[in-house]
Amino acid sequence: MNTPNHIPAEKFQTALLGWYARGHRAMPWRDENASPYHIWLAEVMLQQTTVTAVIPYYQRFLHRFPTLQSLAEAPIDDVLQHWQGLGYYRRAHMLHKCAQTLMRDHNGQFPVTEAELLNLPGLGPYTAAVIAATAFNTAANVVDGNVERVISRLYRVQQELPAARTTLRNLADHLASPAEPRLYANAIMELGSQVCTPTTPQCLLCPVAQWCEANQHGDQTTYPRKAPKKQTPHHTATAWLITDASGHIYLQQRPATGLLASLYELPHSGWEPKSTPQQAPLMLETQTECGSITHVFSHFKLTLNLLHTEVTNIPAANRFHPEALPALSTLMRKALTHALKQT
Ligand code: SF4
């Protein structure tokens, strides 16, 4: 790896911004009318999801919650309902909490600097930086996974992720444009997403190829270096589809804190290593098998075996029609859809 100065920052910025000005993808949160609220919402949704997948969720969410105030005043169940399908529901809880904090403590306005934004609930270094740069055009070091890949290749950073993160941030900071924070942040993220891709970087089309060490060595796809992954644990559990004669389904609500907080679910036996195994909540006499599903969480894989039974009575608080379901996690929607097809 060379020193940061082997790439002249101003020439790099000119090449990158010129390329971006010649054309880039249109995104609703990048148009001229996009407010800080729009940009923040999009960035939170994009944390674990692709741009193409996010757009319909983003539009549906904004249709229901057009302003920060409408989001802050909404019940959390309503927010979760509109988050369904995006997964990682903690993001929806933090979004709601942050909207309430902004309304209560900031007069409904986002602060403009990276440092102030970092104090808001749920905003990490990347989200704070991207809002500061793209919503307010203030200087900020925006480094997401795409930018890490570009920087690691430009400098052939040998250190492995995640330990390399500080080095990559420092190198990214050297190249960032203090004069054009918004354009620069959008341009370098677009380069990583569209040109400097993980497995097939388009180096012949790259506006900064002349400074790229990995391109010169022909080992682009070996960067960023990553520490070997640990094997993912695999857990097995049982979930029950309980219906009554009219086709209503028994669902229970999860606690208001912790994994998948406040979402509804089929009763199940528990799957986290420390969870207490549960039995089905009603007296179940006849149970029929209805297959299984496998779901991958961030830190383990789960196989959920599904059993079906019909009961005469479901308590009102737990009784839901299949066409009017409350907010369910991705896992539980998958399990319910699969089980219903088998019955
Ligand atoms: S030259 Fe290739 S590897 Fe280097 S930054 Fe450009 S696309 Fe990425």
Automatic annotation (TrEMBL):
Annotated SMART domains: ENDO3c, FES
Pfam family, one: HhH-GPD
Alphabetical UniProt keywords: 4Fe-4S, DNA damage, DNA repair, Glycosidase, Hydrolase, Iron, Iron-sulfur, Metal-binding
Domain HhH-GPD: residue ranges: 45-194
GO molecular function, one term: 8-oxo-7,8-dihydroguanine DNA N-glycosylase activity
EC number: 3.2.2.31
Cofactor comment: Binds 1 [4Fe-4S] cluster.
InterPro entries named among the record's database cross-references: A/G_AdeGlyc_MutY, DNA_glycosylase, Endonuclease3_FeS-loop_motif, HhH-GPD_domain, HhH_base_excis_C, HhH_motif, MIG/MutY, MutY_C
Transmembrane parts of this sequence: none
Entry keyword Hydrolase: yes
Single GO biological process annotation from the record: mismatch repair
Broadest EC class assigned to this enzyme: hydrolase
Signal peptide: none
Cofactor(s) this protein cannot do without: [4Fe-4S] cluster
Tagged with keyword GTP-binding: no
Catalysed reactions, as listed in the record: Hydrolyzes free adenine bases from 7,8-dihydro-8-oxoguanine:adenine mismatched double-stranded DNA, leaving an apurinic site
PANTHER family: ADENINE DNA GLYCOSYLASE
Family: Belongs to the Nth/MutY family.
Function: Adenine glycosylase active on G-A mispairs. MutY also corrects error-prone DNA synthesis past GO lesions which are due to the oxidatively damaged form of guanine: 7,8-dihydro-8-oxoguanine (8-oxo-dGTP).
Protein name: Adenine DNA glycosylase
Organism: Blastochloris viridis
